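Structure ticket #2291
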Amino acid sequence: MSEPAINLCIFEDDHYSRLLPLVWMRPVYFLKCGMTDLAEKIRRVCQYENIVYHCRDYLEETVSGTGVPVNRFEDDWYTFVNGRALFNNASLAELLTT
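Resolution: structure written out below.
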């Protein structure tokens, strides 16, 4: 059996409401932390072949402008990372290798 494709889903959970009003018009993983947003920090550490964003339905059109598939899963195997989490590079890399 071959290895499944390496797919990453950056998602936001129901606790996005804890970050209101900052996230009315954007998913939590587009919040800036330093020079980049949370999604970019995750993507930089994760060298995944395919990335999908999952967000609230009413934000789908806005997020789809990034060129990354939104709320669509074309494969069976995904690693899910909560876009609300703030990891340092070492802890995220360790989490993804276990």
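Closing remark: Helices lie at 38-45, 60-63, 89-97.
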